[in-house]
Structures are given as structure tokens and as C-alpha cells.
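Researcher: Good morning. I'm working through a list of sequences from a screen, and I'd like to move beyond sequence-only analysis. For each chain I'm collecting a predicted structure so we can compare shapes side by side. This is the next one on the list. No need for commentary yet; just the structure.
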Amino acid sequence: MSTPYEAHALYELNVWQQEMQRSPSLMNALAQKAQVKLNSFIPEKVHQAITTAIKHMIRGVLFGAGYVAPKPMAQTDLLVREAQVRERVKYYRHAAAAEGGVTGAGGILLGLVDFPLLLGLKLKLLYDVAAIYGYDVKDYRERVYVLHIFELAFSSQQHRRKVYKHIQDWETQVQQLPEDINQFNWRSLQQEYRDYIDLAKMAQMIPLLGAPVGFVVNYRLMGKLADTAINAYRMRWKEEGLLR
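Model: Good morning. C-alpha cells for this chain:
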């Protein structure tokens, strides 16, 4: 029998699952057009620098470079775990906001530095959240799941639906993962992520506006990632019979 907290978590999970599966709206289409237009005004060298930074950070997490895997939390109930998740989220949101404010005040050059720094904070948050829910990110398959959470949070609605369908039955999908990590296709992940955040983050490079924009945008992006991770792991728990 579920506790009141678990019942509420299941309700939030159901709402989130419906959101993940909804069709792209007119606003989504307009935002995508605006993204394409904005990208056309940005120098190609800037685009290449951003793409390269994202590429290397994503490869880094796939191969474990520079990341210390937290120890999975011992068996305990959902309420205790999610209380700890929210404490970690609070820390990372404030760290990301502070970093965005500082780099945003520095214009284009420091604005470029913000991309890999923020990406690193996001990936570390996901590692911590995975461990709190009891999953060992030393296992590369768990790292693949982490990257799929990343895709869910920072993709167009059309791509998000594809990713959701892919991880909906993770126990089946995980059996089909290649043994060789080099076979993992991460190109679409970095492209979707870049396109998703460009519209907001490019404004961070505008003089005078950069600092407040960087502070607010980073805070919100980290919050969105946290909400996505919480529900993605609730879905895993439900699939495994740990949440009913």
C-alpha cells in the first residue's frame, strides 16, 4: 500500500508522462523558427565553439572523464530520497545561477565559457540524483540513462516524444545497448541541447543584460533538469515495482 507521499508522486508522474507525450504545439513551431533565425545572425565560429564544447563534455561523461561516481544510497523510502534530491537541487541551482551571473557580466568571451561550465554542473547534478535513487553510474548503461534524461529536459517537443518512448520500457531497452560505448550515438543529443538553449543563452552575451539574464536562465534551466530527473527516476521505480 502506497503512502500519501507516494500517491502524490504517482500523480505528478502521470502529469509529467502526459506532458512528455503531447504533440508539438504552434508555439513550439514558432520557437523553432525563431531559433533558426537567431542562429543565422550568430558568427559560425561562435556556433562551432559552442558545439565543440558540448561535444567534448558529453564525450567526457560517457567515458567518465573527470567525474567521480557517487555511491548509490542504501535502501530507504521515496520521501527520504527525494528530500535529499531537493537539497542537492537547491545547491546546484544556486551554483548555476551565480556562475551565469558572473559569466554573463563578461560579454561574449565569458558567455562562451558559461556553456561548458553549466553543462558540467548539470551532469554532476544528474549523477547525484541517480545515486540518491539507488542507481550506480559506474555502470555505463546508467550513464546512458542520465543522458536520455538530459535529452528529455533540453529538446524540442518532437524529439522529446521520441526519447520518452525509448526509455519508457528501460528494462527492455537496456538489453539492446551496445557493449562498446563508442557505438553510442550522441550527436542528436548535443544538437538538440544546443538548439534548445541558444535562444535564451545568446541573450546572455548582450552587454548590460548578460548578468541578470545569465542568473535567471541558469537557475531555470537547472530547475527544469531537476524536475525531469525526478520524474524519470520515479518512472524507473514504477517500472521496477518500487513505486505503486
